[in-house]
Amino acid sequence: MQITETVSEGLRREYQVVVAAADLDSRLSSKIDEVKPKMNLKGFRPGKVPTSYLKKTFGKSMMGEIVEALVNEGSQKAVSDNNLKVAFPPRVEPLGDIQAAVDGKADLEFKVVIDLMPDFELADVSALEVEKLVADIEEADVDEAIKRISEQSRSYSARGEGEEAQTNDAVVINFVGSIDGEEFEGGKAEDFNLVLGSGSLIPGFEDQLVGAKAGESRDVKVTFPAEYGAEKLAGKDAVFAVTVKEVKKPDEVVIDDAFAKTIGFETLAELKDRVREQLKRDYAQASRLHLKRRILDALDTKHDFSLPPTMVEGEFNGIWRQVEAELKREGKTAEDEGKSEEELKKEYHDIAERRVRLGLVLARIGEQNGLTIAPDEIQRAIASRARQFPGQEQAVFEYYARNPQAQAEIRAPIFEDKVVDFIAELAKVSEKKVDRATLFMDPDEALEKLKGEAKA
């Protein structure tokens, strides 16, 4: 077996592997000699089948196995002989006529493509300076949260005969939907409870029932959103034949100790304390999300090194498939985003590079500091995922038990969070007070807002 390096550029290495036809034939003869004593074929005494007959009858299939083994051996040898630290399993590409090699008529030639792990120095994470957004929980926030709870548990009473439905009223309706006169699947319901103004149904549906009376029938005309989940309905005009059976007005809710008792608390003060504790958890989670983003931004700024091409392309391809699916679902093109396809691809390729770079940095930090994920952490995450599928929990557990790749996808974010928390303990973290709205913004939007405020 002859292995020759043909490409050495950055983190990419390529090797040409050649196995002479004579060597292939020699390996085939050795394999035949190995199995010959065990062969028991009709018409021949045990172990006495002629070599020529075995070669003619089984040679091609045996040679196929030999070639497969040589391909694996060649790729592993290219790695071990050159002491390479690979970032990705080597990729093998055939050269020459592989079938001719299997037939014993030509040398076996193939190319081994290898991406190397980059060698880089980690930045001192204790020197990172990052900002953590925090917000005070105001009494008004607690009151607003309790108001939302009261609205969710609100009762309704029938309006008087002939009274019209108003926004925030509850109506009980029957409806049948059709497109171009044809009823469609999922467009029919009876005794459907709907709060007008809740946004529960397609935009425009609820507005057209304001003013309706019990016993009245109306045709509600709507257009399904372009991004609607059911592709057959997305963007289509539809008519719903609606019959209003009942119109009910919301009962007045007095938020006091009596109300608190209806939802399981002794006093309103106890309810407020519980709500305040939940808000603290919500605020802390939002604050951590911003801190994580700032830490990742800081790490990205501090590290600049070559990336394994295959890793980047794999990450980009995954992102781009999602982008294309989203554009298709919304009936849009790259131009609708104000960019050419090439510009959009460049933007997402940069995102792929950032993800790969940060993945390598976080992995190195975790490795150097002995951060690991215990099996019970994986199981808790899988259990949490299973709870999202009531009645199918066992199937979810079995799916992850059978799929190591799925387990890896569960493990990755847990490990990332563990490393980020480790860095947060060491980095110089300063707190910045913001309002509640900013705290619960997307981290990118919050950053742009704060930059704008700083310039002003």
UniProtKB/TrEMBL annotation:
Its EC number is 5.2.1.8. It is an enzyme of class 5 (isomerase). SUPFAM superfamilies: FKBP-like (SSF54534), Triger factor/SurA peptide-binding domain-like (SSF109998), Trigger factor ribosome-binding domain (SSF102735). Keywords: Cell cycle, Cell division, Chaperone, Cytoplasm, Isomerase, Rotamase. It catalyses: [protein]-peptidylproline (omega=180) = [protein]-peptidylproline (omega=0). Coiled coil: none annotated. Pfam families: FKBP_C, Trigger_C, Trigger_N. Transmembrane segments: none annotated. InterPro entries: PPIase_dom_sf (IPR046357), PPIase_FKBP_dom (IPR001179), Trig_fac (IPR005215), Trigger_fac_C (IPR008880), Trigger_fac_C_sf (IPR037041), Trigger_fac_ribosome-bd_bac (IPR008881), Trigger_fac_ribosome-bd_sf (IPR036611), Trigger_fact/SurA_dom_sf (IPR027304). It is found in: Cytoplasm. GO terms for molecular function: peptidyl-prolyl cis-trans isomerase activity; protein folding chaperone; ribosome binding. GO terms for cellular component: cytoplasm. Residues 168-250 form the PPIase FKBP-type domain. GO terms for biological process: 'de novo' cotranslational protein folding; cell division; protein transport; protein unfolding. It comes from the Bacteria. Consists of 3 domains; the N-terminus binds the ribosome, the middle domain has PPIase activity, while the C-terminus has intrinsic chaperone activity on its own. Belongs to the FKBP-type PPIase family. Tig subfamily. NCBIfam families: tig. Involved in protein export. Acts as a chaperone by maintaining the newly synthesized protein in an open conformation. Functions as a peptidyl-prolyl cis-trans isomerase. This is Trigger factor. It comes from Rhizomicrobium palustre.
